[in-house]
Amino acid sequence: MSNRYQPSSSQWLTDIAGDLPPVRSLEHDLEVDVAVIGGGFVGLWTAIALKELEPGCKVAVLEQGRCGAGASGLNGGFVMSWWPKIGSLVGICGADDATWLAEETTKAVMALGPYLEQHGIDTEYRQSGWLWTATAPAHIGAWQGCVDTAARLGHGDVFQELPADEIARRTGSPAHIAGIFEAVNATVHPAKLGRGLATIAAKLGVEIYEETRVNKIDRTRPARIATPRGTVTAKRVVIATNAWAANVPELRRQFVCVGSAIVSTPPIPGRLEAIGWTGGESITDSQTTVTYYRTTRAGRLVFGKGGGRLYYTGEPGETAFQDPIGIAEAEADFRRVYPMLADVPLERRWSGPIDRTYDSLPLLGRLGDAPHIAYGIGWSGNGVNSSRIGGRILAGLVLERRERWTENGMVDRIVRRFPPEPFRYLGGCLVRGAMARKDRSEIAGCAPSGLDKALASLAPSGLEDKG
Ligand SMILES: Cc1cc2nc3c(=O)[nH]c(=O)nc-3n(C[C@H](O)[C@H](O)[C@H](O)COP(=O)(O)OP(=O)(O)OC[C@H]3O[C@@H](n4cnc5c(N)ncnc54)[C@H](O)[C@@H]3O)c2cc1C
Question: What distance in angstroms lies between residue 447's CA and the mean position of ligand 1's atoms?
């Protein structure tokens, strides 16, 4: 499964390694209406949306490794609405577009299960809701801005505050001392979702070329795309390359690549039952270096930690996929939250790249000097569900449709840029260190230093609604 570009040993990719279809690479020149670069969730949903909107459109996906083996095969599998980001959304698009987009993400979560079922694809989709919790007194109420904004927009029913004892009971650990519940959210097996989307796209007539790295995009009209053994001539192009988009000059300073790491246990259904975490809820805490965890159909516990190390601008290297420091931090938090599982070993450990923007929402637009080239990047650790919305927007953009999907405040937005290197990297490391120290102090019940608080506040926004 692993190759030079996507080295990984995620639980998910390991699970499906025996069921992969043979690789088909591009071995000739090709002419298409739309070339989609990147075969993760974003590229695949875009290709699917294009064929659903215009079945006659000739679409090719060009993927440097295997489809779904980038961030899409490494993540936590949380299928989330955009309601936890509603404050930032309102800041970007205004109340009307923000409400509409958040509603669309809710609909997308609910539609995903039936859509996959209709195509005969099992991704272990389970709609059991999501708990946003506090594991330290300082976290309590981290969600309040978000809850209030949703209520102000007429969606006071999105989040439900639960009593502390219920939070502890449903999560299987008294480490959780408060929290809210968003019932709509779901979980999936992300690698099964990636392969499933590739299957649907192929059935709709999308040509998928794997192990076909795009080395250069010539911005002529039509665009000429160089791959190792063939040139693709495309009227339109979609860049859906996640953190690899650092090689596109216009996009390089609009996001940073940070790490997120995950550990997983062997199947322990009896132990999950003993602690009471049987409802399938996904859980996130309120640290600035956020932890996120869930169970799987086989009864594994999968525990992740975001806000990890910062990478110098460039394409993700090997350490982004196997970062020992991030993995150790994820394991430490797992042991802290579930001390009663101290004897349970870990089966897999991995990490992956996050394309993080300043406001934690994606960048969807067209290149200024080449509007026939669209991009959808910057998912900021929240792309499993929103990639479907993004794919619909990108399909609308390349088909030049004038509709709400292409004419809302998220499209072609001007965003705050990160400083150039080496200032971005050095400053980012300072901020990241302060975030980690602040989190450790708060969990230990101590007040973080004023300097750490001030530095941590410079971090790109996370779950906590700053809008
Ligand atoms: C550890 C981790 C945990 C996460 N947890 C969650 C979660 O629980 N819920 C959630 O919503 N989100 C989560 N995310 C984020 C989510 O995985 C991403 O937002 C989502 O997968 C983005 O999809 P994508 O298609 O943009 O990226 P990718 O899946 O990375 O796809 C981009 C593809 O582009 C290909 N590519 C790059 N350059 C080239 C090139 N030059 N030529 C051809 N192909 C190229 C890559 O090989 C890759 O396959 C997590 C991410 C990580 C890393």
Answer: 36
Q: What is the residue with the minimal CA distance to atom 3 of ligand 1?
A: 75
Lining ligand 1 with CB less than 6 A are: 5-6, 37-43, 62-65, 69-72, 74-78, 80, 213-214, 240-242, 244, 260, 262, 292, 304, 352-354, 379, 381-385, 387
Specify the pTM.
0.97
Give the closest residue to 386 by CA, choosing from 75, 62, 57. Answer: 75
Q: How far is CA 258 from CA 357, 368, 384, 422, 427, in A?
A: 10, 26, 17, 15, 13
Chain segment 364-375, per-residue pLDDT in tens: 999 999 999 999
pLDDT of amino acid 33: 98
Per DSSP, which regions of 296-401 are E strands?
301-305, 310-311, 348-356, 363-367, 370-377
Nearest to 383 by CA among 373, 391, 393, 394: 391
Alpha carbon of residue 273 to chain centroid: 29
For atom 52 of ligand 1, the residue with the nearest CA is 75
Nearest CA residue ID for atom 14, ligand 1: 381
Closest C-alpha residue for ligand 1 atom 26: 242
CA–centroid distance, residue 70 to ligand 1 (Å): 5
Residue 194, H or E segment:
helix 190-203
Helix axes 144-152, 86-118, angle to 10 degrees: 80
Select from 337, 311, 335 the least CA-distant residue to 323: 311
The protein residue with its alpha carbon nearest to ligand 1, atom 12, reads 382
Instruction: Tell me the C-alpha distance between 339 and 151, whole Å.
Output: 36
Task: Ligand 1, residue 294: give the atom nearest the CA.
Answer: 8
Average pLDDT rounded to a whole number, residues 167-181 = 98
Give the three-class secondary structure for 327. helix
Residue count of the chain: 467
